[in-house]
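Attaching the record inline, Q. Sequence:
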Amino acid sequence: MDFLKDIWAFLKVRKKWWLAPVIIILLLLGILLVFGGGSAIAPFIYTLF
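Structure, as predicted:
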């Protein structure tokens, strides 16, 4: 969680708001792969890629 606070502080101080959507999409893809790797929906997730 501390890592996300550091990223938020970086975005706020440096005014790099265009990076926010990129970071959010990468986090969502990471969460999807972690949860989809060991579940019954894994074959459906792998067909997306």
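The helical segments are 2-14, 19-37, 42-46. The two ends are 28 Å apart (CA to CA).

More tomorrow.
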